[in-house]
């Protein structure tokens, strides 16, 4: 998953352990510097290729999740190409991460490959390091989109897998026809 010689920071290790211990199903990583929602894979299937579309087996689900956020964001959903993030207007404010730029070791890829958690990356504003007085506006631009995104937790696979006595089955594998990515039940 990580490049040879890559050092994983202690806080990243802690988040990875946390993600494996609780059956999260949805998350978002918030960044600054652009207005777009990206989804896995963030690392190109061909490491020497930059800006290469690299879909997961759950491409349709990830696009739906990213669109749920983008469509509810007042600026990302704005059709003006003359604003920050305007170069993503024709894409609906979303893009496959590796198609934008490829990088290794991202949490969205880790979550998809090693947990049941589907994660998108939300670039919440044009400034990489916004000033304090800009934070209130950024929060209000993203609040409704975050709530809309959180509601997506009710989509997809959910329920209890149990034996004939009604006891939950831990680590049961669930497969969906034509999607080469299984999920497992929690504890």
UniProtKB/TrEMBL annotation:
UniProt xrefs under Gene3D superfamilies: Carboxypeptidase-like, regulatory domain (2.60.40.1120), Zn peptidases (3.40.630.10)
Keyword terms, alphabetized: Carboxypeptidase, Glycoprotein, Hydrolase, Metal-binding, Metalloprotease, Protease, Zinc
Peptidase M14 domain: residues covered: 1-153
Molecular functions (GO terms): metallocarboxypeptidase activity; zinc ion binding
Membrane-traversing stretches: none
Keyword Protease: yes
Protein's UniProt keywords contain Glycoprotein: yes
InterPro entries: CarboxyPept-like_regulatory, CARBOXYPEPT_ZN_2, Peptidase_M14, Peptidase_M14_domain
Signal sequence segment: none
GO biological process: peptide metabolic process; protein processing
Pfam families tied to this protein: Peptidase_M14 (PF00246)
Cofactor(s) required, per the database record: Zn(2+)
GO cellular component: extracellular space
Residues annotated as catalytic: 123
Similarity comment: family membership: Belongs to the peptidase M14 family.
Protein name per the record: CBPZ Carboxypeptidase
